[in-house]
Write a structure and sequence with these properties.
The chain is α+β, with helices and mostly antiparallel strands. It has two helices and two strands; from the N terminus they run E-E-H-H. Strand 1 and strand 2 form a beta hairpin.
Length: 66
């Protein structure tokens, strides 16, 4: 029986990676899974990179001013 908190195997593609401010290359699907499991420490290079990627991927919202 597999542990639900474990990471699953996935294919690796350079399109699924991003370079952090620390110069390291990070696999985004792995970062997303680690974040979902609560294993990324806020403020860490991996956490900051993931938050930047998620913010860049979010659609821009129009602000309506009455």
């Amino acid at each position: 029986m597999s542990d639900p908190a474990s990471l699953n195997r996935t294919t690796f593609s350079l399109a699924d990676t991003a370079r952090g401010d620390d110069g390291e290359l990070y696999h985004l699907p792995t970062l997303r899974r680690l974040h979902a499991l609560g294993h990324l420490r806020p403020g860490s290079a991996a956490y900051v990179l993931l938050m930047q990627v998620l913010a860049d991927a979010a659609p821009a919202r129009a602000r309506l001013i009455a």
